[in-house]
Specification:
Elements: E1 4-7, E2 13-16, E3 19-20, H1 26-38, E4 40-42, H2 43-50, H3 56-73, E5 79-82, E6 86-89, H4 103-107, H5 123-148, H6 157-170, H7 175-187, H8 191-209, H9 215-233, H10 246-260, E7 267-272, H11 278-287, E8 294-300, H12 314-325, H13 333-344, E9 346-347, E10 353-355, E11 361-363, H14 364-379, E12 383-389, H15 396-409, E13 414-421, H16 426-437, E14 441-446, H17 451-461, H18 472-479, H19 483-496, H20 507-515, H21 520-530, E15 536-537, H22 538-545, H23 549-560, E16 565-570, E17 573-578, H24 581-589, H25 593-608, H26 616-630, H27 633-645
Parallel strand pairs: 7-13, 7-14, 8-12, 12-13
Antiparallel strand pairs: 1-2, 2-3, 4-6, 5-6, 9-10, 10-11, 15-17, 16-17
Helix pairs in contact: 1-3, 2-3, 5-6, 6-7, 7-8, 7-9, 8-9, 9-10, 12-13, 13-14, 14-15, 15-16, 17-18, 21-22, 21-24, 25-26, 26-27
Length: 646
């Protein structure tokens, strides 16, 4: 350890062997501090800084006297002469000051450089001191800003608080400080700290500058309070099939909050690989209470309908049709007619035409104009939020309509949330790029959970369960943070407990373990459900299982308690589908080839018997697919030609 301890921050001082060094006069002391910072200099520079108003001869005389006094009170070897003109601090004596600290420690110094240390009639030195004080603050703030860009900092709340608090200490009225600090506290889910930072900022702004916060700051604090409200409502329990993703929920909901309050915002495209929870996240957002004056329309795009014009909008217009019938919305005659056209119309061959139920033929452009007029009518009554699941399967005409809507109404009267498979269908990229370039949408990439997130989810979901000795690290290594695999793993542990040291099964093994718990009737219903492209109703399942209605309903109720099946309403009908494509694919792939073909043929023939019914337009693309998978390619081609001429 050096025999000298030099403090430059705050009131400066020098200790030698633990005792205070008393300098003979102020300028000699100032020269030493100058050398402690600059490390080396020359006589001309020192004369210019400390005796700039004297002639050269007097300046050199005064400098020699000052150096002589410094050697007397410090040490002969502390200041080294090099040649006739150069001087430097002797590094071998190990003299270190706060100025030599690394950025992290330096940024924590809250006292000003050479505070309360002044030289009379020495403006050049005072200018040098002020420059160093500015450098002290800028260096500290640059380090703090760089650290706050690291998302990991937000997980260390005490460290985050020190950084933000130090920034606020130096720049209490800095708008960048309060915006960055509130955003970081929001990421750390410390909303009260963010709100307190805002109030402190407002107080300093009014007291020191007699100003009020900008609109950006006011919007952000309202968003912070809204995020806190969301976090209090989004507290999943151990039986909840959706967990984690609070940050993503808040990010999307914040965009909606801005939209509903007339602030600038962007619609959200949730992107990710298969199974990362895109649909589940969007469903969570959809189910959150938006209050009155908000119209939410939800559509699902299906692969089997990806070539049928405007089919991707069918779900939304069915919802509008029901609301119109129930008196929840009021429309003009032309608006109601547009709903009917969208629900009952069909494409005319390869032409750019659309035929309505009444035989009226319209161009797609005319249909699009009608939908735009309808949305304009609705947006006068409501704020509209559109939800599209599996955007990558949207047909080309629906994409064109969506692009026109978002360009004309986007984020002002209409907000959109959509899910899209990462690196999905190339055709959808044109739409996404067009909307992104116009700053209408932003992408939210959904990835697998990190190890820390996995550990937090394990603690949250298994709290109070048989979790003694649970190794969250092993669970992460086995599941790689994949939401679907993690969900099944935690479900297994919750039901059967944790056996320390026992290997965790892979996803296919988890599915097989769950399937082995089903009885013959339950497995038969699952097999039948796996044959259907998207979903099935009771009539579809009865065809293949040959069960009586009450027996089938009982079996389905039993399956609803498993992770395999979910029940939904579609119009006036009740439908059943697999919770995830993983499960459907696994069950389907384990059917014998003969059983697959026979059942596909049975479904196709059953659908074709309904060709004279109104549903035939909806069933036709599925009928074609079932004939193809049954091996009857000829009949599939015949129906495909019929579809073009319909």
């Amino acid at each position: 350890m050096s025999e000298y301890q030099v403090a430059l921050m705050g009131i400066p001082s020098v200790l030698k062997d633990g005792k205070i060094v008393h300098f003979p006069y102020r300028k000699a002391e100032a020269i030493f501090y100058y050398l402690c910072v600059e490390k080396e200099t020359n006589r001309d520079e020192l004369i210019s800084v400390f005796w700039g108003g004297s002639d050269e001869a007097a300046g050199r005389k005064n400098l020699r006297q000052a150096l002589f006094q410094l050697r007397r009170c410090l040490d002969e070897e502390v200041i080294v002469l090099q040649g006739r003109n150069d001087l430097k601090l002797n590094q071998r004596r190990g003299i270190q000051t706060e100025w030599d600290l690394r950025d992290e420690a330096f940024s924590q110094c809250r006292e000003r450089f050479l505070d309360y240390f002044y030289l009379k009639d020495c403006p050049e030195f005072e200018a040098w001191v002020e420059g160093k004080r500015e450098l002290q603050v800028s260096r500290s703030l640059q380090y703090i800003k760089d650290r706050l860009r690291d998302p990991a900092v937000c997980r260390d709340v005490p460290h985050l608080h020190r950084l933000v608090d130090t920034w606020s200490y130096w720049r209490p009225w800095d708008e960048e400080m309060v915006l960055t600090g509130m955003k970081c506290y929001a990421q750390a889910e410390k909303y009260d700290l963010g709100v307190q930072l805002y109030h402190d900022y407002v107080k300093h702004l009014q007291t020191d500058l007699d100003e009020v916060p900008s609109h950006r700051v006011e919007v952000l604090v309202r968003s912070l309070l809204h995020r806190k409200e969301v976090s209090l409502t989004r507290k999943p329990n151990g039986k909840d099939s959706f967990f984690g993703r609070l940050r993503e929920i808040q990010q999307i909901d914040e965009r909606i909050f801005w939209f509903l309050n007339g602030e600038a915002t962007r619609s959200v495209i949730i992107e990710g690989e298969v199974g990362v929870g895109k649909t589940a996240l969007m469903q969570q957002i959809l189910e959150m209470n938006r209050g009155a004056g908000v119209l939410q329309l939800n559509s699902h795009c299906y692969e089997a309908e990806s070539e049928i014009p405007l089919r991707s909008w069918r779900d939304s217009f069915m919802q509008l049709d029901r609301m119109l019938a129930e008196g929840k919305i009021t429309l003009s005659v032309s608006g109601a007619r547009t709903i009917g056209r969208m629900l009952n119309g069909t494409a005319v061959g390869d032409q750019d035409m659309f035929r309505t139920k009444d035989g009226e033929c319209l161009s797609y452009t005319a249909i699009e104009n009608g939908v735009l007029a309808l949305l304009k009518e609705l947006s006068a009554q409501f704020k509209i939020i559109l939800y599209f699941d599996s955007l990558h399967w949207m047909d080309v005409v629906s994409r064109r309509l969506l692009q026109r809507i978002m360009i004309e109404f986007g984020n002002d009267q209409v907000f959109m949330i959509a899910t899209c498979r990462l690196n999905g269908e190339p055709d959808i990229r044109g739409l996404l790029v067009a909307l992104s370039e116009r700053r209408i949408t932003e992408n939210l990439l959904l990835s697998c959970f990190t190890e820390q997130e996995t550990g937090e989810i394990v603690d949250e979901i298994l709290q109070g369960q048989r979790n003694a000795g649970i190794d969250a690290h092993e669970i992460f290594l086995r599941t790689e943070g994949h939401p679907m695999v993690l969900a099944d793993t935690l479900s297994m542990i919750r039901q059967e407990g944790w056996r320390e040291g026992s290997p965790l099964p892979r996803l296919d093994m988890l599915i097989q373990l769950q399937l082995e718990k089903l009885d013959v009737r339950q497995r038969k219903v699952l097999d039948a459900l796996s044959l259907h492209m998207e979903h099935a109703d009771l009539e579809d399942l009865r065809l293949l299982t040959e069960m009586e209605p009450m027996e089938l309903v009982e079996v389905l109720e039993e399956l609803l308690s498993t992770r395999f099946v979910t029940e939904q309403t579609l119009g006036n009908n009740i439908i059943y589908k697999f919770r995830h494509q993983f499960y459907k694919d696994y069950v389907y792939q384990h059917l014998s080839l003969g059983k697959r073909r026979l059942w596909h043929l049975a479904i196709a023939q059953s659908y074709e018997k309904k060709r004279n019914e109104e549903r035939w337009r909806v069933l036709l693309p599925f009928t074609i697919r079932h004939y193809e998978r049954s091996g009857d390619i000829q009949r599939a081609e015949q129906l495909r030609m019929e579809q073009k001429n319909l």
